[in-house]
Every structure is written in structure tokens, then in C-alpha cells.
Design goal:
The chain is of the alpha/beta class. It is built from 20 helices and 31 strands. Helix content is 31%, strand content 24%. Helix 1 packs across helix 2 and helix 15 runs parallel beside helix 16. The model has no long low-confidence stretch (mean pLDDT 88). The structure holds zinc ion (2 copies).
């Protein structure tokens, strides 16, 4: 990339988001264009968006090459972004066109900035003042020089729009045309800093110093639940803003963003830009444009916020870095945590990975000296980690169809008597995981997947948790036609709600599960009500493990601590350990000490024992030793290959052929396992076969995989997905 400007008529190579495997040559338009410019180009009969990626190759008949139609009115893509997309594509084996789609996921980028009318305080005072007029002027005075749309002013003042328009005629309110996408308000890094504990202050200074170094670095910020990690990394954000650089905070769950945005506003005086699926299309476009022109200082968002066109990115915080939702599981398969590190390394930016229970990957990077470790040891205020104990289910007296042991029941009763909250944790949505026919033994499954349908009594339907298909609860068995013989087997959170209500009929019981709410707002409102004490007993899925504060909670009961230990996932132990620690961390956050009780049939299991002992270092050391011995991540490399097709024969044939023709993999010492039916062998009517490739950590896995996969011709209906560093094995 030598020339950065192309004159009219020069050949340019343009990357488009169309599924082509090459750049397309065009002539630079009148006035020329810069390297990285976003352009509109003709493609057949269509006009498509593209980015000027370099000089054209010139290997076509020059007379037939068409011109770029126009250069779009957005900031050109910076070189560091082009490098980031290229390296991310190489790492994930994704076509560049798909990477460009990820980087341009905002509507209307090609359109000219549209205008709208905005309203602000005028310089006249109306001769006759009314209550309604005073309200409007009051609102505009309160917000200083800020401007609003007609609807916004009217709503904030609680008056009709005609009142505002009347004031415009009198010159008391001014009406102007302004671009629809406006800059985000300035954040003030010195607005609302909280008093920090000594622990926090030291941590904050370490992060600030790292930022001032103006170089790349990654810090693992580890702190138990309630240790105040957020306050500490917000100080790093503040320092980043003072330096005039942009900051990004990634959150694993949109449901958490509302609470988080409020904390940002309290700290910096204004709200930041938001980027996630809950944001309107208009707001997405605004965010994309403003980030690109440097008019958004802080973005709070989901993983895809990494692909926004930052001008000067100085800091990326990945909150709850261990969370599995950072791995995108369809389309481009990438892990946002790892891509954040890549992006920061290219930009000379700092990364903060925050977690109470870090991933083994990050733990190993600290051990290897790649990341710096920063630990907050004390919980905020007087609270300490809860006392943990196992309930040995082999000796508990359990009537059939019940799941709360007598020991847990007694502990809950004590909390009720003291007016404290209990949390009953079960990581299973719905009423019951299995619907079984008592006459013939048939279990109701999904028509499109090899998965059982889960009864959701609240919705009065059966639901497939793989594909989302639902159907009404049948009254007769679909297999043998027996009437009224279907019964629910096993517990889900809804059923736990029933059992707990029967045990404690006078208690206020709430079930917290993401599928019980019509909107994120409704869920948030309910969580707030619970936190304020509106409930005695909360029954929840892993939703409750994710960062919500319940200050009155002093008991956590885990219904099935063994649940996550089943299955073939190499991270099963790690996930169980993290989840149990996170859930237990909900107890005793305020002044009262907490207790966590784990119901288990295998109290001597190594993972259960290390959870109870609370000895993290020894858990991680043991887990690391086991993975090292097995040569699996993070000490070896893996890639999953999923072949899927409506035609079962075709997927197995191709899988077998791939296993046979493994030359390119053997060259780098990698091994292929499979083909085997994927653990869920059919999803949405497609049969799935998987192969697993294992290699040494230093092996050039991506090149070998590309060479290997390139040998095969895929039948029309067959899809191949390559998943580097797979997180899930379904
Ligand atoms: Zn039956
Ligand atoms: Zn299904």
C-alpha cells in the first residue's frame, strides 16, 4: 500500500461485501479517491457498497472497466482497520467480504446525511407567559444549549407540540435544520469519581499508568464479585478520555447494559454511545458515523462493537471476559475477547479483561507473561465470600418428583424467618426438560432437530431449545395416541417455582428466566423490584449469575451442582467452577454474611471439592495440568469442522473423504478425529457431522486447514463451517 490517493481514472481495487473471492477493479471517480474510501460501485445491474482496498490489478481489458459511482460521505476506513479485518479473516478463515459485512452493519451508510428540524432556546421572551409555555422554556433552560426534536421537547415538557410551535413564532424557541446523526454529548472524566478503597485506588492507578504508556498491553483484572472491578476500570476509561482517545466497553449480556449505562452516566455525567441488537437502526447508523468521525468517546456494546470504525481507540474493556457469549456461534465464528486483544495490538491500545472467574485461556496467558495480572482481593464493605457447603443428595430423604432437599428447605426457612432473601439456582429454563408418555415411553422431540422438546408451562407450549420451534402441549401421545398419559419429567425453573411455593405458601416467590419476559425492559424492572426486597425467594437460571446486585440475598441453593459436569465438553469443569462461584457470589453482598449450599450426588468430585474449598489457584493449576497433558486448549490448538446437509449420506461421505485426505494436516503434525455425528445430530432438518482437528500450539493451523478444506468440492446443499478454537461442541 504505497499510494494513498488515486487520481481520476486510476485503477483501484475495491472490496465489496458481495460473496466474491477477489477485489474488483474500477476507475477512480472524478475528483479521485483516497485509499480506504467507502464508495458506491456498479456490479452488474446493481450498485453496491465497497472500500478502496489498493491499486487495481489491471488484468482486465481497461476499456471495459467501469468507474466508481461516488465516494460516500463517511470517514475512509483507516489502515489499522484494514489490517485488523485482514488479520481477523486469516485467523478465523473467513472471506474478506464477510468481514466487511461485519464492519458495515449499519443501515443507510450510502445515503446522504438526512436533515431534521431541531429546537433550542431562542432569545425572545414571550409577552404573555402560560404554564405550558413556562414548562417548555424550563426544559430547554435545564438542558443548557442542547437541542431536541419537536416530539422530544413536547414530551419532556408534558405539553402538546402546538405550544412549542407557538413559541417558535414568538422567537422564544428557535427552530433549525440539522443533520439527523448528531455527535454524542461530551463525557466528563472528572464528573463523578467515587471514593475508592485502597485496593481499588492502587488498581486504578496501575491501569491509568498502562494507558499513559501509549502502547499495547493486556491486563487481567480479577476480583471477586462485589470487589468493585467496574469502578476500577471506569477510571481507566476516564484516563483514556482525558488523553483524547476513544474507549470501548464490551458487555456479555444486553440485559445488563441498562444498569451499566446508568453507572456510566453517574461517573461521566452523560450517556455513552450504545451498540447492540436492542438499539434502533437509526441509532446504529448514528453510532457508526460518530465513532468514525471521533464524535463518540465511549461505546458500550456487544461483541460486534469491535468492528466499528474507531478513529483513535485507546482502550477496550471486556467485562466478564470468561463469558461464553463472547464467542459468535454463527456467521463469522470469532471470539470477541481474542479479537479485542488483536485489535488493541494493532492500535497500540490497552485491553482490560475483567472477571471474578477468568477463563483458563487468560489465566494461562498471565502465566506465560503475555498478560499482566491485577487482583482486587477485598470485597467492598464488610462482606466476604459466602460460606460454601455440599448437600449430599445420596443421604437426603427425597420424595419422588421433588428437588429441594430437607437440608436446603431448613436453610430457606431460617432466611424467611429473618426476613432475608434466598436464591434457588437451576440452569434449566422451562417447566420440565422431558415430556414422557407413561403408556408407551415415547419422549416428545422436535420435528427438525434431534432434541427433546422442553415444556414451558408459562407459555403453555413445548419448545425446542435448539431451533426455537414451539408447539402446543398435546393432550394425547403423538406416538401411541393414549389420552392424558403425558407427564413432565425432571425439573426446570418454572417447576421449581411450583415446588417452592408449595413448601412456603406464604413466601413471595419469583421465577427469573429470560424467556418469561416480553422485553428487556420488563425483565430489568422485575430484577430491580427483586433487588429492592419485593421477593423472599428468587428462582433463577444463569441469568442471575450475571452481575445483578441483590443486597438482601444471604442464601444460595444450587439444585443440581452436577448438571454442568456431564457431557464431553473439555471446558465442563471450568464452566461449572465459574458458574458455581458466580452464583455463590450473589449471596452476602451487603453487611450480612452469605451461605451457599450445593446439592450434589458426587461431593467427592474434584471440581465440587475445589468449588467448596474456594481454592481457585489449585483448581486452575490442576485444570491446567490436565489440559497440558491432553494437549488441548489453551496448551494446544483445535478446530471444529461441522458439515451439514439435508442429505445424511452426503455429509458422511464428505466427512469420510476429508478424514482420508488429511495430507496437509499431517504435514504440520495435526490429527483429525471423526467424522462423527455431532452431539446434536440434526438441527433445523439438517444432518450434522463433525470432525475435530488437534494440533500443537505453535503449528500453522490456519494455513493447513485452508489447504485441506480447499481440496474438496461441496455438493450444492452442503455447508462447511470451520470453527477455530471451538467453545461449544454441540
Ligand atoms: Zn405413548
Ligand atoms: Zn428444534
Amino acid at each position: 500500500m504505497t499510494d494513498s490517493f488515486f487520481h481520476e481514472g486510476d485503477l483501484v481495487g475495491v472490496l465489496t461485501a458481495q460473496p466474491l473471492d477477489r477485489l474488483l477493479d474500477y476507475k477512480a471517480p472524478e475528483g479521485g479517491c483516497h485509499l480506504g474510501a467507502f464508495v458506491e460501485v456498479p456490479l452488474g445491474p446493481r450498485k453496491v457498497l465497497g472500500v478502496v482496498w489498493g491499486a487495481g490489478k489491471g488484468d482486465y481489458d481497461r476499456a471495459k472497466i467501469r468507474s466508481v459511482i461516488r465516494v460516500l460521505d463517511v470517514a475512509p476506513m483507516r489502515e489499522e482497520m484494514r489490517v485488523f479485518l485482514t488479520r481477523a479473516a486469516e485467523y478465523t478463515l473467513t472471506p474478506m467480504t464477510a468481514m466487511l459485512r461485519l464492519a458495515t452493519r449499519a443501515p443507510g451508510l450510502g445515503e446522504a446525511q438526512s436533515m431534521r428540524k431541531i429546537y433550542r432556546l431562542g432569545d425572545q421572551t414571550p409577552a404573555r407567559m402560560t404554564d405550558a409555555r413556562e414548562k417548555v422554556l424550563g426544559v430547554l433552560r435545564d438542558y443548557g444549549g442542547l437541542s431536541f426534536t419537536l416530539g422530544e421537547v413536547a414530551e419532556m415538557a408534558g405539553v402538546g407540540t402546538s405550544v412549542v410551535k407557538g413559541l417558535v413564532k414568538l422567537g422564544a424557541v428557535s427552530e433549525e435544520e440539522a443533520p439527523r446523526d448528531v455527535p454524542y454529548p461530551q463525557l466528563d472524566p472528572d464528573y463523578g469519581g467515587k471514593a475508592l478503597s485502597a485496593d481499588q485506588a492502587a488498581g486504578a492507578e496501575t491501569l491509568r499508568a498502562a494507558l499513559r504508556s501509549d502502547t499495547y498491553g493486556t491486563t487481567l483484572l480479577k476480583g471477586v464479585t462485589g470487589s468493585g472491578k467496574t469502578e476500577v476500570y471506569l477510571e481507566a476509561v476516564a484516563e483514556c478520555l482525558r488523553m483524547g482517545r476513544q474507549a470501548l466497553v464490551l458487555l456479555p449480556e444486553i440485559a445488563l447494559s441498562g444498569e451499566f449505562i446508568n453507572r456510566v452516566e453517574a461517573r461521566f455525567g452523560m450517556r455513552p454511545a450504545e451498540w447492540h441488537s436492542g438499539v434502533t437502526m437509526t441509532e446504529r447508523r448514528r453510532c457508526w458515523r460518530m465513532v468514525g468521525q471521533g464524535d463518540a468517546q465511549l461505546v458500550v456494546g456487544a461483541r460486534s462493537a469491535l468492528f466499528l470504525p474507531y478513529q483513535n481507540l485507546g482502550l477496550i474493556v471486556v467485562d466478564e471476559e470468561h463469558d461464553t457469549s463472547y464467542k459468535q456461534e454463527d456467521g463469522v465464528l470469532y471470539n470477541a475477547r481474542d479479537m479485542a486483544v488483536l485489535r488493541a495490538a494493532i492500535n497500540g491500545a490497552q485491553v482490560v479483561l475483567a472477571s471474578a472467574t477468568p477463563s483458563l485461556e487468560s489465566w494461562a496467558n498471565v502465566e506465560a507473561g503475555k498478560y499482566t495480572r491485577l487482583e482486587l482481593t477485598s470485597r467492598f464493605g464488610a462482606a466476604v465470600m459466602p460460606k460454601m457447603a455440599a448437600i449430599d443428595m445420596r443421604v437426603e430423604d427425597m420424595p419422588a418428583g421433588t428437588w429441594v432437599s430437607p437440608t436446603l428447605r431448613d436453610a430457606m426457612r431460617k432466611r424467611l424467618e429473618k426476613g432475608e432473601q434466598s436464591l434457588i439456582f437451576l440452569n434449566r429454563r422451562g417447566y420440565a426438560p422431558i415430556t414422557l408418555c407413561r403408556a408407551c415411553g415415547h419422549q416428545i422431540g422436535c420435528d427438525h432437530c434431534d432434541a427433546r422438546m422442553v415444556e414451558h408451562r408459562f407459555l403453555k407450549r413445548l419448545m425446542c431449545h435448539q431451533c426455537g420451534e414451539t408447539k402446543p402441549l398435546p393432550t394425547k401421545c403423538p406416538s401411541c395416541d393414549a389420552e392424558d398419559r403425558l407427564s413432565a419429567v425432571g425439573p426446570g425453573v418454572e417447576r421449581m417455582g411450583e415446588e417452592v411455593t408449595a413448601l412456603f405458601p406464604d413466601a413471595r416467590v419469583a421465577v427469573l428466566s429470560s424467556d418469561l419476559y416480553g422485553s428487556a425492559r420488563a425483565m430489568k424492572a422485575h430484577i430491580e423490584e427483586i433487588a429492592e426486597g419485593g421477593t423472599d425467594i428468587v428462582i433463577g437460571t444463569q441469568l442471575v449469575a450475571k452481575g445483578h446486585n441483590f443486597p438482601l440475598l444471604t442464601l444460595v441453593g444450587v439444585i443440581d451442582a452436577d448438571l454442568g459436569l456431564q457431557g464431553s465438553d473439555l471446558r465442563a469443569a471450568e464452566r461449572t467452577f465459574q458458574l458455581m462461584r458466580q452464583v455463590a457470589g450473589r449471596a452476602g453482598r451487603a453487611e450480612t454474611p452469605g451461605e451457599a449450599l450445593l446439592q450434589t450426588y458426587q461431593p467427592e468430585h474434584a471440581v465440587i471439592r475445589s468449588i467448596l474449598a474456594g481454592d481457585e489457584e489449585s483448581f486452575w493449576a490442576a485444570e491446567a495440568a490436565e489440559r497440558k497433558a491432553a494437549g488441548v486448549p489453551p496448551y494446544g490448538r483445535m478446530a471444529g469442522i461441522i458439515l451439514s446437509s439435508p442429505n445424511v449420506q452426503e455429509v458422511f461421505d464428505l466427512g469420510a473423504e476429508m478424514a482420508r485426505m488429511d495430507g496437509p494436516l499431517r504435514q504440520i503434525g495435526a490429527q483429525v478425529f471423526g467424522p462423527a455425528p455431532a452431539p446434536i445430530a440434526r438441527v433445523r432438518g439438517r444432518h450434522r457431522v463433525r470432525l475435530l482437528v488437534k494440533a500443537e500450539k505453535s503449528a500453522p493451523l490456519q494455513q493447513a486447514l485452508a489447504k485441506w478444506a480447499g481440496q474438496f468440492r461441496l455438493p450444492a446443499n452442503l455447508r462447511m463451517a470451520i470453527d477455530i478454537d471451538p467453545q461449544s461442541f454441540y
